[in-house]
Design a protein that fits this description.
With 70 residues, this protein is mainly α. 84% of the residues lie in helices and 0% in strands.
Length: 70
């Protein structure tokens, strides 16, 4: 991904926040229910690979939020 595209995606994420299903994924990850999060994301996004990618993205965001709050 280019630098410009990464910047735009980060800006859009800051402005719009998370979708409701992403918030639910974050809650499931807080409860250490990684497998349930994957099943939920897979159902919402359609494929196993998209679900895995979204779960990894949410795990990264959660880790980032934990670091910034500490």
């Amino acid at each position: 991904m280019t630098v410009k595209a990464a910047f735009i995606r980060e800006l859009v994420r800051d402005v719009t926040g998370f979708a409701p299903y992403e918030k639910r994924c974050l809650e499931l990850l807080k409860l250490n229910k990684d497998k349930r999060c994957l099943k939920f994301a897979k159902k919402r996004l359609g494929t196993h690979i998209r679900g895995k990618r979204k779960r990894e993205e949410m795990m990264k965001m959660q880790k980032q939020m934990r670091v910034t709050s500490a």
